[in-house]
Amino acid sequence: MKSSVIEVNRLCKSFVAGKVATNVIKNLDLEIYEGDFTVIMGSSGSGKSTLLYSISGMDSPTSGTVKILDNDITRMKENDMSAIRKKDISFVFQAINLLPDITIFENIAYCGYEISKNKKEVNKNTLELLKKFGLEEDKDKYPSEVSGGMQQRAALARAIITKPRILFGDEPTGALNSTTGQEVLDILSEMNDNGQTIVMVTHDVKSAARASRLLYLKDGRIDGELHLDKFSKADYKKREGLILEFLQERGW
After folding, report:
1. More exposed terminus of the chain, fewer Cβ within 10 Å: N or C?
2. Is 135 helix (H, G, I), strand (E, B) or coil?
3. What's the number of CA atoms in the CB half-sphere (13 Å) around residue 187?
């Protein structure tokens, strides 16, 4: 039986504008399991990014509890939460957010230096990731000197140099064209095959086809979930068909 790495109980998230409160996430219970590639989908305004930010510690819930690796982050001091962000979790965004004034190598290595004093080891790990992600020849270039796909691959390398237990992604291929988007998804699938736990928000069916578990969010609640086998390109069309049927049943 899979162990849970995130436990969510009666999670609520509201936003207040003037005297009006909007309840985006409503008494939601959820478990995320180690080794799963969990994808969260839903129509615009369903609360999927709000949920992702709440369960990753990027934002604080209005009420309820979120435990990451048995740590209740809703009651955690900032210093302790910062330690979890550095060591146990990492985030990849649609907006790539590489630091523009340092090289691709430095962008990746910088995060490694944050958790390790062994600079030689961090540099070695950085070079290995650059080679793995096809960026070895571009390591001394600045982000503006490489393509968007290369930037996102660098952002992925930066996110995993700390060897996080959980990788979160908020539309990580949303700003990429189809070819470079597929390259990034291939990397994510390979990482998941090697045991990486991934939680990703997307609106794209092709991206969702990489999931082993698909959650559909509607009006701030989980309206259904679909379980799939580990991703294989051989059954891509079949997976896509199952997902489309699942989504259409929910009015997507």
Report:
1. N
2. coil
3. 27
Phi-psi region of 45 (alpha: psi -120 to 50; beta: other; left: phi over 0): left
Mean pLDDT of 160-188: 92
Dist. CA 220–CA 197, nearest whole Å: 23
Residues 64, 140: contact at Cβ < 8 Å? no
Residue with tokens 């086809």: 209
pTM over 0.90: yes
Instruction: Centre a 10 Å sphere on the Cβ of residue 87 and count the other Cβ atoms it contains.
Output: 15
Task: Provide the residue type at 28 as one letter.
Answer: L
Per-residue pLDDT band for 19 (boundaries 50, 70, 90) equals confident
CA–CA separation, 112 and 85 (whole Å) = 13
Phi, psi of 102 (to 5 degrees): -130, 160
The answer to whether the beta carbons of residues 219 and 187 sit under 8 Å apart is no
C-alpha distances out from residue 161 to 31, 141, 156, 243, Å: 25, 19, 9, 32
- Cα gap 53→45, rounded to integer Å: 14
